[in-house]
Amino acid sequence: MNALYLAYAYLRYNWARSLVLVLVAALIMFVPVATQTLLSTSERALVARGEATPLLLGARGSQLDLTMAALYFGEERPEPVAMAEVEAIWDSGLGVPIPVHTAFSSGGFRIVGTTLDYFDFRDLGIAQGRGLSVLGDAVIGASVAQALGKGVGDALVSSPENLFDLDGVYPLEMPIVGVLAPTNTPDDEAIFVDIKTAWVIQGIGHGHEDVVTANDVANGTAALANAAVVQYQRITEDNIDSFHFHGSQDGFPTSAVVVVPNDTRAATILKGRYLDGNGPTQLIEPAGVIQGLVDRIFRIKALLDVVTTIIAIAALAAIGLAVFLSYRLRAKEIATAVKLGARKGMVLRLLSAETITLLLLSALLAGLGAMVVSRNAEAWVGWLLALGT
Amino acid sequence: MVRVEDLRFGYGATGFRLHVPEFTLAARERVAIVGPSGSGKTTLLNLIAGILTPEAGRIDVAGTDVSQLSDAERRKFRASQIGFVFQDFALLDYLPARQNILYPYRITPALTLDQDARDRAEALAVACGIGDKLDRHPNALSQGEQQRVAICRALVTQPNLILSDEATGNLDPDSKARILDLLFEQAAEAGASVLAVTHDHELLPRFERVLDFAQFRVAAVDEGAPL
C-alpha cells in the first residue's frame, strides 16, 4: 500500500508527464484493437451484404463497380441496363428481379429508384410514416433522416445532375413519406423512390406546367425555398396525371438488377444464360466479388499490422527511455530511501508500482476506447462504407 | 550510545583507507566531526549507520553490534534507531511536508504508520515552526523551512541517534545557528545523541565535544591513540 501511495503521489505531482505516458501507452494498446475490431466488423458487414444478394445483373464491365453501385450505392456509375432485362427474368420464372437505379443523389445521399420488392428482399421496416405509393414519394434511410434533420412531411430536391445538359430536366422535389428503421447497412444512407420517380428525375418521364420558379419562391407561393435551387419540378395531386413517359418501358434504364432466384437450380440456370462473354450484360455473384475485395483489404491490413508493430515498438522504446531517464533522475531519492532504511526491494517495488499504475491506467483508457469502438463498430462501419463508396 | 573499536575500512578503487582505533559517543551527547574533505567523515557516519560494512572492528550502537547484522537487519536497525539529516535536505519534491516527515514509515516494515506517528509529526512540525506549512511541497518552502522538515523526519521515528551530515551547509549564516539549536533542542527532548559532520567552525562551541578528523586520520594511519 505504501508503495502504491508513493507511486500515486509521484504520478499525480508529475501529472503532465504521467498523462503523456498514459496517453501514448493507451494509444499503443488501443490502435491495434480498434483497427482489428473495425476491420473485422467491416469484413462481416461487407460479406454479409454480398451474401445477402444472391445474384446481380448489370452491364458488362467492372464487376466491382457494379457491386459497389448496386449494393453500397457508391459513386460508381456502371453502364445502365435496359428494363427489358428485368422483364426477361420475370418471363423466365426463375427468380424475382429487383431493379436498382442509382444515378442521382440529393443532399449528398444516393437516390435509389427501385420497386417495392426491394423492401421485402432487404427486410426493411418503416420506423415512421408509410412506404412508397405515389409517383414522387421518397422513403429515406435512418442516417439520411438524422444527417439532414428531415422526416415525414419534409421534402427533398434531387441534385441538378443535368445542369449543363441542354436536354436536361429540372430537379424534382420529393415529399418524404417514410423513414426506415436503422439497419447499419448502406440502406441507412439511401433515399428510396419508385424507379419511375428516378426516370422522372432523369427526364424520361415528365409532367407539364409543373415547374416552380424563382418568382414562386420569392412570392411565397412555393412550399419550399432553397437558395441553391431556383427551379424544380413538383409532383402534385393536380399534375400527377399529366406525368407520362415517352417510349417503351423496356428501353428505360436501370443501374443494375438484383436477382433473387427461386432456388439453387434456378440460380444455376440463370447464371448459365449470361455466360456469353460477348453479351451486353453479366450476371455476377456479389459475394465472390466482395470476398475478393475483402481479401485485398486484408492483404493491405497485413502490411498495416507490420507498420503498427514497428510504430508500437518505437513508441514502447520511447516510453522505456522516458521511464529509465525518470529513474535516473530519481537516483538521489533512491539513495535517500536506502539511507533511511528502506527495505530491500522497496525501490523496485516503488518503481514497479508506478509503472504498473501507468500501464493499468493506459489499459483502462484503451479498454474504454475499445469498448466504445466495439459498441459503435457496426454503425461506424456502415457510415465508413457509405463514405468510402 | 556509540562505541567504535579498531574499525577498518577501505575503498578499493581509490585506495582510501580508514582506521579508527576507538571512538565513543555517550547518550544525549552532541559531538561535532570536523576535518578536510575526503578525510572520511561521511564514511564514518555511513559505517555507524550500517550503510557501509567495515572490513574489521566493532561498531556498537545502543547495545547492538551493527557490523554483525545482516543487510536486512541493518536496514531495520537504521530505520528504527537512527535519524539522518542531510546537507541537501533530501526531501521528495512530490510529497507535501507532512508526508515527507512521515516518509520513513512508507519505506520499511520496521516502522508502523499509526495515529501516534502522525500526531508526533504534527507536534514536531509545530515545535519547529512549520506547523502551518505541512501541506506545502518542498518547492514552496524556504531552505530553512526545508531543513526543518528534514529535522522532523529525522526525529519522528524517535531514534536514539541523530547523524547529521553538514546539515547547515546550505543555509545562510543566520539560519545555521537557529537550525542547529532546533536540532539540539528536539534531539534533547527525544533523548537522542547527535553526531554531526560540519565545516562551520563558528558552530563548534555549540557542541559538547569536537572530533578533528584530520588529526584523527593521521592518528588512524599511525594507529593512533583512542579518541
From TrEMBL, chain A:
In this chain the MacB-like periplasmic core domain maps to: 78-219
| InterPro entries from the UniProt entry | MacB_PCD (IPR025857), Macrolide_Exporter_MacB (IPR050250)
Indicate the transmembrane segments per the record: 306-327, 348-373
GO MF annotation list: transmembrane transporter activity
Per the record, a Pfam family?
MacB_PCD
Q: Which domain of life is it from?
A: Bacteria
Which keywords fit this entry according to its UniProt record?
A: Membrane, Transmembrane, Transmembrane helix
Q: Which GO terms describe its cellular component?
A: plasma membrane
Q: What is this protein called?
A: MacB-like periplasmic core domain-containing protein
Q: What is the lineage of its organism?
A: Bacteria, Pseudomonadati, Pseudomonadota, Alphaproteobacteria, Rhodobacterales
From TrEMBL, chain B:
Q: Which residues form the signal peptide?
A: none
GO CC term (a single one): plasma membrane
Boundaries of every ABC transporter domain copy: 2-227
Keywords of this entry? ATP-binding, Nucleotide-binding, Transport
The domain of life is Bacteria
**An annotated Gene Ontology molecular function:** transmembrane transporter activity
Supply the name of the protein: ABC transporter ATP-binding protein YtrE
Q: Which organism is it from?
A: Pseudooctadecabacter jejudonensis
